[in-house]
């Protein structure tokens, strides 16, 4: 089973591109953001706790998201691969994921990072906030904070997979199909 992380700052297009990739490749899409929002909608204890972090543009504690991924991975079989969207968000999450996969004699095969300039991210998230109903997209200070949290806590994950020879940067601007083709080309020529 192939394991591919779709990486990038908030607004880079991870969710949009992950959906296209899984359609094309027959992989499974795991979005921790979507899983958390589903918990919030169901008003579970986990969801109620997570909402406080999400609404502030902060990260939900590592143990919580790692636990969600562990549950999903245990259920998983018979898929050719998984696209991780929005996970890992911190180095401890990356290390936990590596360990979970190592115990299955598997590994992260590629981290594809979507590169999008800061002003473009702000523009995309602001527009998304007008239609998505996402509480964390409607306030500019929260948007800025999420990008700052990405720079500080999430971006260092690139170096971790770069050192293992598994980092593939991809230009994340242009139209959606163009970006999708770039990602598929990298996956088909370098990863699968
Ligand atoms: O990935 P997505 O942008 O949909 O995540 C939305 C929010 O969910 C993040 O801004 C963050 O507050 C929270 N989240 C998290 N840890 C993750 C994934 C999402 O804290 N691994
Ligand atoms: Mg997303």
Quickly describe the structure:
With 192 residues, this protein is an alpha/beta fold.
In words, what does this structure look like?
- The chain is α/β, with parallel strands linked by helices.
- The protein has a single domain, classed as P-loop containing nucleotide triphosphate hydrolases (Rossmann fold, 3-Layer(aba) Sandwich).
- Helix content is about 60%, strand content about 15%.
- It has 9 helices and 5 strands, in the order βαβαααβαβαααβα.
- It has helices spanning about 15-25, 30-40, 45-55, 60-75, 90-100, 120-130, 140-155, 155-165, 175-190, and strands at about 1-5, 30, 80-85, 110-115, 165-170.
- The longest helix is centred in the C-terminal third of the chain and has 16 residues, at about 175-190.
- Bound molecules: cytidine-5'-monophosphate (C5P) and magnesium ion.
- The site of cytidine-5'-monophosphate (C5P) has 16 residues, from helix 2 and helix 3.
């Amino acid at each position: 089973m192939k394991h591919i992380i779709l990486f990038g700052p908030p607004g880079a297009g991870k969710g949009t591109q992950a959906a296209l990739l899984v359609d094309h490749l027959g992989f499974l899409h795991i979005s921790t953001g979507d899983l958390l929002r589903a918990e919030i909608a169901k008003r579970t204890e986990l969801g109620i706790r997570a909402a406080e972090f999400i609404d502030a543009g902060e990260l939900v504690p590592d143990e919580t998201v790692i636990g969600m991924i562990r549950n999903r991975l245990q259920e998983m079989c018979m898929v050719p691969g998984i696209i991780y969207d929005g996970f890992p968000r911190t180095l401890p999450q990356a290390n936990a994921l590596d360990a979970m996969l190592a115990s299955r004699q598997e590994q992260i095969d590629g981290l594809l990072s979507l590169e999008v300039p800061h002003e473009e991210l702000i523009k995309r998230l602001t527009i998304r906030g007008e239609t998505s109903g996402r509480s964390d997209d409607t306030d500019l200070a929260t948007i800025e904070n999420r990008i700052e949290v990405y720079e500080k806590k999430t971006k260092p994950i690139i170096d971790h997979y770069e050192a293992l020879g598994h980092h593939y940067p991809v230009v994340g601007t242009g139209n959606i199909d163009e970006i999708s083709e770039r990602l598929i080309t990298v996956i088909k020529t370098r990863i699968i």
